[in-house]
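DATA SHEET
Item: assembly model
Revision: 1
Owner: S.N.
Input lines:
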Amino acid sequence: MIRDLSLHLVTDPVLSGSRGVAETVRAAVSGGVGVVQLRDKGASDAETVDRLVELSGIIDGRARLIVNDQLGAAVSARARGARVDGVHLGQGDASVLRARELLGPDALIGLTANRAEHLDAVRALPAGTVDYLGVGAIRPTSTKPDHPPALGFEGFRAFAEASPLPCVAIGGIVPDDAAALREAGAAGVAAVAALCTSPDPRSTATEFLRNWRRGATPRVLSIAGSDPSGGAGIQADLKSIAANGGYGMAALAALTAQNTRGVRGVHVPPAEFLRAQLEALSEDIVVDAVKLGMLANAEIIETVIAWIDAVRPSIVVLDPVMVATSGDRLLDAAGEAALRGLVERADLVTPNLAELAVLTGRELGGWSDALVAAEALSAESGAALLVKGGHLPGDTAPDALVDAGRGIRREFPGARIATRNTHGTGCSLSSALATRLARGESAEQAVAGSRAWLRESLRAGSGLGVGSGHGPVHHFAGLWERGGLETRPSAEDIREAWWGRISGVRSGIDRLPFITALADGSLAEAPFRFYLAQDARYLREYARVLAEASRLAPDPEEQAFWAESARGSILGEMELHASWLTPERGIVGETSDAEPAPATVAYLDHLRSVAFGGDYPELIAALLPCFWLYTDLGSRLRAGALHPFARDPEHPYASWLDTYADAGFAAAAERAIGIVTRAASRTGGEQRARMLRAFETSSAHERSFFAAPMAEEGADRA
Ligand SMILES: Nc1ncnc2c1ncn2[C@@H]1O[C@H](COP(=O)(O)OP(=O)(O)O)[C@@H](O)[C@H]1O
Ligand SMILES: Cc1ncc(COP(=O)(O)O)c(N)n1
Ligand SMILES: [Mg+2]
């Protein structure tokens, strides 16, 4: 059976200080620790057995309890009724074969490993002997001084990639390491000092898990009924999970024959088949969160309880479905009693008002009375509750999150949305919650985010035109409206596509008389002077447009880049005047401040008009050809690609050629290309098209600019 190995607490009597091991374990498990490893090198077997019995009572099935090294103590504690799930063995300890034999096939058995030969030994074992490897130390650690030199994250990654078993990282790990270790291939992290010395192990455990979950796509399982109309049940669950960023799976507890007007039949397959579905999943897939919906009867509920106790998923959200919006019963009376056994195994329960009344066995007088009843149920069960006010009369539809254990009591007000499309809102909301919690959101963040998504889906539901009764919500409305569904090209794809789009312009520039004469060194002074004078004019105005890009930039890094480029452009212009547009070179005053030629005016007017539009992505796309084309042309010229003489230091324009083959300029061009193509990749299709148009227009102006010095009017005016 695959287990969720996300977060382990390895106990340490010294580091737990005056709070002691038992209270450290209690707090850490309530914060979400999934595996408690009792480790006390100094304790006798008898002391360890007593400690295991005590911890088993504290943990009460909400996490797995294993013991370090002392296999005998595990067996003895089990004999005294303690719930000991397994052992973690070191390289020199009792054999894992013996442990598997003594503790059975469902025990959780871990083995410390950190060298290649350990992996060879593990490969030689019968499959299923060891469940996971404890791999470390990630950092030098005080809790295991005899440990080999620290592995570091990359050392861990290499080991995990070579390992045939899931690897749990250990050794000096703090909450901030969790995401990076998961990305490095860890199946979980084990903390010792970080949890034992924490003043608040519960919140430290929660922080570990939040970081662990962030950035990964949660694998969310719905155990519920089928609604062929797609608005409720597992069909709604799968859509809701996907719309909120998860990977959805579904085990069917019941089938219904229903549409938007109501339920006309319920078929409940044998509970044994639900168990078979669940076992198939948990032998192969780590489930990050479970959502429980329609469970039909007591036997099904007992089956789910048994599976939860065996697998112990990190997050359980229970939507206590009893009666459909249409008024049809979806859970029989015996089932309502059995449901209470699920409430205490849930992290979050989402009853509407009628369901809350059944769970608390009380008639509810109204909203405030419901909150009081919810507070009591939360305190008694340990679960948080989201009381749903969708069925309240009047024009508001508030929800309230009540978590007695965390002292949370927060109402989420909201106007009722005028729509008949409210079928499956409860199913959809609870699935969204399970997904968001599994992504590392806090309960309050998950409720706020799920509600916002659901309200957007509610508003768009009637547009689907599904059924004549209570229609469904539109689970992907927001995504479709925000253009989220189109496939975004990557920045690399865009770079390749845009460069291809101007290949005609680029080969056109290579063939221009000005360029070919520049390359073979035959270019006369007059057109060259004309070009330099125009370039000086251009650079001064180009600097202003770059400064505007800096002003519009969305983040400091891009703001700094465009500002630096503006400065570089001004310095370039000054350099031109200082070293080229000088009397020594026979260039008299008026040429150095020549009137801008038509090509120069047209190019600058294009840049200014885009800048005036204030659209940052479009503006930087317009600015890009000046970087990109110049660097490309300059480096090819210098390399002799257009004419071998251009490589010669005796070339009459060698120093000019050096300017545009300069590595610093090439690096700046690479930065600009990256910024622009990433912006184009992130934005929607319409703006991306505008960016490309601006880019192509500027490229055409570049070609005109290089054509001007040898054009009819340009040549005789110089
Ligand atoms: N007309 C509505 N306007 C706004 N929110 C609604 C509306 N109907 C339902 N909701 C939201 O959907 C949630 C679940 O709906 P509700 O009908 O209370 O649960 P269930 O579908 O389980 O009976 C409500 O708590 C509320 O957040
Ligand atoms: C299979 C199934 N599961 C749950 C519900 C409750 O949804 P709602 O309360 O919105 O009718 C349903 N109608 N069908
Ligand atoms: Mg419901």
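QC remark: Confidence is low (pLDDT under 50) at residues 713-718.
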